[in-house]
TrEMBL record:
PROSITE patterns (alphabetical): WD_REPEATS_2 (PS50082), WD_REPEATS_REGION (PS50294)
Lineage start: Eukaryota, Metazoa, Chordata, Craniata, Vertebrata
Transmembrane stretches, start-end: none
Subunit annotation: Component of the THO subcomplex, which is composed of THOC1, THOC2, THOC3, THOC5, THOC6 and THOC7. The THO subcomplex interacts with DDX39B to form the THO-DDX39B complex which multimerizes into a 28-subunit tetrameric assembly. Component of the transcription/export (TREX) complex at least composed of ALYREF/THOC4, DDX39B, SARNP/CIP29, CHTOP and the THO subcomplex; in the complex interacts with THOC2. TREX seems to have a dynamic structure involving ATP-dependent remodeling.
Keyword match Repeat: yes
Stretches of the chain forming a coiled coil according to its record: none
Protein name: THO complex subunit 3
Keyword presence, Repeat: yes
Family: Belongs to the THOC3 family.
Subcellular location(s) per record: Nucleus speckle
Length: 327
């Protein structure tokens, strides 16, 4: 069968699956809004970072998230976090307090605090696990040795740096910027390789698919673009959102792409065709989405539902979509 038929078979199977597993459930996580959610590489744990200056970690038990711990130490908002690519016990948080912190879920302790030059807003861990890159509000990206916790390199950019990421092969470093460009540097040399005019407006987020075939970018013009990693050309665009695309995530098989914004739904597209596979209804803008590394479960977090509840009791929840309707 050709690709189109294969895709449509997958499409039908996933739609059928979501028809029976379209339930979302929310889990109390924080006392203020959640900026970032991420799964450990083995899919056993979900971490969340919040405006309340803490990170929370949950254990996934069949169809629910059970809160394991709350991680305190930062003195300002935790804007982004990510896990070690192959060690399911380590995660790192980036904060406005000018530090990053590495945490170990086995001891529930902070194993390192690294001082940085500015208020940190984005962070990623290299695929080989050796380096952590952190970007701050002054458009400086610092490369930190994950073992010695010392800075290896620092780059000041002349443009607004949004999200940062290595490619899966670890030999290129990507930045999305405020002019709508994707800047690509060689790694570890950090020499400019290419700058792609990806969008007519601010390019906000970037994600690589697990198979290494594509990466996706989201922008302020509400478009999601899918790129071929080898050719660095745009393969297709997804245009169902109306608001700036804040967050993206590929499913574990690389076949679905979730994207979200201030629209009150999360779009789930089939990567190969761009067609809408499903949408997850939300009551408010979505800050962050993350597919589970093994199952069709999507973790996400939305903005506070202002004024809808007393003292924003629901402000700091983490949500999970893809649960059985009868659960």
């Amino acid at each position: 069968p050709d690709g189109a038929q294969m895709a449509s078979q997958y499409f039908q199977e996933m739609q059928e699956s979501f028809k029976n597993n379209s339930k979302s459930r929310e889990f109390p996580a924080h006392t203020a809004k959640v900026h970032s959610v991420a799964w450990s590489c083995d899919g056993r744990r979900l971490a969340s970072g919040s405006f309340d200056k803490t990170a929370s970690v949950f254990v996934l038990e069949k169809d629910r998230l059970v809160k394991e711990n709350n991680y305190r130490g930062h003195s300002d908002s935790v804007d982004q976090l990510c896990w070690h690519p192959t060690n399911p016990d380590l995660f790192v948080t980036a904060s406005g307090d000018k530090t990053i912190r590495i945490w170990d879920v086995r001891t529930t302790k902070c194993i390192a605090t690294v001082n940085t030059k500015g208020e940190n807003i984005n962070i990623c861990w290299s695929p080989d696990g050796q380096t952590i890159a952190v970007g701050n509000k002054d458009d400086v990206v610092t490369f930190i040795d994950a073992k010695t916790h010392r800075s290896k390199a620092e780059e000041q950019f002349k443009f607004e740096v949004n999200e940062i990421s290595w490619n899966n092969d670890n030999d290129m470093f990507f930045l999305t910027n405020g002019n709508g460009c994707i800047n690509i540097l060689s790694y570890p040399e950090l020499k400019p390789i290419q700058s792609i005019n990806a969008h007519p407006s601010n390019c906000i987020c970037i994600k690589f698919d697990p198979t290494g075939k594509y990466f996706a970018t989201g922008s302020a013009d509400a478009l999601v673009s899918l790129w071929d990693v080898e050719e660095l050309v745009c393969v297709r665009c997804f245009s169902r959102l109306d608001w700036p695309v804040r967050t993206l995530s590929f499913s574990h098989d690389g076949k679905m792409l979730a994207s979200a914004s201030e629209d009150h739904f999360i779009d789930i597209a089939e990567v190969e065709t761009g067609e809408k596979l499903w949408e997850v209804q939300c009551d408010s803008p979505t800050f962050t989405v993350a597919w589970h590394p093994k199952r069709p479960l999507l973790a996400y977090a939305c903005d506070d539902k202002e004024g809808k509840y007393d003292n924003n009791r629901e402000a700091g929840t983490v949500k999970l979509f893809g649960l059985p309707n009868d659960s």
